[in-house]
Specification:
Blueprint: E1 3-8, E2 11-16, E3 19-24, H1 30-40, E4 46-63, E5 68-90, E6 93-103, E7 109-129, E8 136-139, E9 144-147
Antiparallel strand pairs: 1-2, 2-3, 3-7, 4-5, 4-7, 5-6, 6-7, 8-9
C-alpha cells in the first residue's frame, strides 16, 4: 500500500492511496485547521467525516422563511459523535460545509451546521477527495449556497 505522512498547521495526516486520515491537535479550531489542510493538499471537492471531543462549539441554524441564520455557542465539554460534510469552492476559496452532532454530559444531543469548535481531547477525520472541482454559488431565492455545475 502506498502511504505518505503529512504535517501542517495544527494537523497531521496519513495519505493512503487517495484517502486522508487526519488528526487535529488539542486546542485547535476545527474549521480553521481543516481549511488549512484542504488548501495544503489542494482538495477541491470531496467528502469528510469525523469524531472527537470539543470544549466549545458554535452552531448555525438556517430559517428558510426569513433567509437568515441563527448562531449559538455552547461552552461545555462535548463528545463529537459525528461530523459529516463536503468540500467545495466558493468565490475562488475552499469551502468546508460541515454538520455536527454533539453529545452532552447528560446524554442529550445538539446538532447543526458547524461554524466553529475548539478541540478538547481528540479530533479525527477521514477525507475522501474527488477528482473534480465543485463550485457553490448563492441562490438568492432560497438564501443559501448551492452547487452550480455550469461553472
Amino acid at each position: 500500500m502506498n502511504t505518505q505522512t503529512l504535517k501542517g498547521n495544527n494537523w497531521s495526516a496519513r495519505k493512503a492511496e487517495s484517502i486522508y486520515i487526519v488528526s487535529v491537535e488539542n486546542g485547535s479550531r476545527i474549521v480553521e485547521t481543516l481549511t488549512d489542510f484542504v488548501k495544503n493538499q489542494n482538495i477541491l471537492a470531496g467528502e469528510v467525516t469525523g469524531i472527537g471531543a470539543v470544549r466549545e462549539a458554535t452552531l448555525r441554524f438556517f430559517n428558510p422563511s426569513t433567509k437568515n441564520y441563527a448562531d449559538k455557542t455552547f461552552k461545555e465539554q462535548m463528545e463529537v459523535t459525528n461530523i459529516s460534510g463536503n468540500v467545495s469552492e466558493t468565490e475562488g476559496k475552499p469551502l468546508l460545509h460541515l454538520h455536527i452532532t454533539l453529545g452532552r454530559e447528560d446524554y442529550t444531543a445538539l446538532a447543526g451546521h458547524l461554524l466553529d469548535a475548539t478541540v478538547q481531547g481528540a479530533a479525527e477525520f477521514i477525507f475522501y477527495p474527488l477528482n473534480t472541482r465543485v463550485i457553490k454559488v448563492k441562490n438568492e431565492d432560497i438564501g443559501i449556497n448551492l452547487y452550480d455545475f455550469e461553472k
